Every structure is written in C-alpha cells, then in structure tokens.
C-alpha cells in the first residue's frame, strides 16, 4: 500500500540517526506509546468501529461505517476550544481547497468529531464549521450519539482528553487517515496540510 511506503520512508530516515540514541533510551523503550502506535499502524492498520452512530451539524444521523468506500480525514475537536481546534479547523479549510476535486467526487471526506457531545449540539457544530470557513460539501462535523460510541472512538483512535483549569480540555490534536475499507492507516501531526493532501492525492493516483 503506497501510503505505508510513503510514511515508512520517514521511519527509515529517523532510524539512520536513531542508533545513536539506543543506549540513552534503553533500546528505544523510552519512546512514547503514541509514537510506537503510529509506527505500528503503518504495518498493521486498525479497523474502525463498525457501528457508531453520529449526529451531524444538520441533525442527520449516520453510522460511521456508512462512510466506508471513501478516504476519511478525521480530527477530534470540541467547539469551545480556542487553540488546537482552531488550528485544526484552519487546516481542514486548507484541505478543502487542496482536495477540492476528490471531495466533490465523494472519494474523500473530512470529518470533525466532537468529544464533548453534551455541549456540542448540531447548531454549535454548524457554527464551528462556519467559523472554520467551511465552504462546500465534503466536510462534516458530528458528535457521537451514545457514551458507548464515544468510548469506542476514543479507544480505537487513541484520543486522550484531560479536563483543564479553564473548564475546557487538553487533548491530542492530529489528523487521522482512514482508508476506504474503514481502517485507520496513519496519524499525522497537524501543521502540514500540504503533506496530508499529497498523501491522499497519491493514493488516488493524482
């Protein structure tokens, strides 16, 4: 799979200098669990939940599995966030431009999932999209309908959420790539939407 070859190249580059660190990190055991998980995904994609109901910004209900058959770019947000979620929204807006043609064809979908469903009503999700300058079809914002669905999503995607002193949350912010078979195949840090777009376009043969 070409996405795995593309991402594996970065691991090879890191490994070239990584041998120097082996003694200082107890043969890399000091590396984070998140880093290890991302590397493992490149060789062993993880199936996303088959049944998780989501409510979108329009109030429609969809099953996460209904989106199979297309590439998904998924981020996790809460609408009161004024830091990383704003940055993620800006990157998704840029991806709307960079991936305009495949989004229009339905071969790619952007999906922002709220992990604060009690607060993030469809109206607030719609406002989040407007604030993020969503301009066309192809970008959904949604919230899990049940606590069990939220728990499944957090577990499979590895979302860490910690309440902070300001009444919000500290959370990991990344873009998750799910292939048309419904498998989580890569997690990329925010900050480089161009790289995300290039990977998707390569997968689509463009």
Automatic annotation (TrEMBL):
The cross-references to InterPro entries, in alphabetical order and at most eight, read: SCO1/SenC, Thioredoxin-like_sf
Where exactly are the transmembrane stretches of this chain? Answer: none
State the signal peptide span: none
Q: Which GO terms describe its molecular function?
A: metal ion binding
UniProt xrefs under Pfam families: SCO1-SenC
* Keywords associated with the record: Copper, Disulfide bond, Metal-binding
Q: What protein family is recorded?
A: Belongs to the SCO1/2 family.
| Protein's name in the database | Electron transport protein SCO1/SenC
| Organism expressing this protein natively | Nitrococcus mobilis Nb-231
């Amino acid at each position: 799979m070409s996405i795995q070859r593309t991402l594996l190249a970065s691991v090879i580059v890191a490994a070239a200098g990584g041998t120097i660190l082996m003694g200082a990190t107890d043969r890399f055991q000091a590396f984070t669990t998140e880093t290890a998980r991302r590397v493992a995904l490149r060789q062993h994609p993880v199936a996303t939940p088959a049944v998780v109901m989501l409510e979108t910004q329009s109030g429609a209900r969809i099953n996460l599995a209904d989106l199979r058959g297309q590439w998904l770019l998924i981020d996790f947000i809460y609408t009161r966030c004024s830091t990383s979620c704003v940055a993620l929204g800006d990157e998704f807006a840029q991806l709307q431009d960079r991936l305009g043609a495949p989004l229009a064809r339905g071969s790619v979908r952007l999906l922002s999932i709220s992990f604060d469903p009690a607060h993030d009503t469809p109206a607030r999700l719609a406002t989040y999209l407007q604030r993020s300058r969503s301009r066309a079809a192809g970008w959904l914002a949604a919230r899990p309908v049940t606590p069990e669905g939220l728990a499944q999503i957090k577990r499979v995607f590895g979302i860490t959420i910690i309440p902070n002193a300001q009444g919000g949350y500290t959370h990991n912010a990344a873009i998750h790539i799910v292939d048309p078979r419904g498998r989580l195949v890569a997690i990329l840090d925010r900050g480089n939407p161009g790289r995300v777009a290039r990977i998707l376009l390569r997968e689509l043969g463009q």
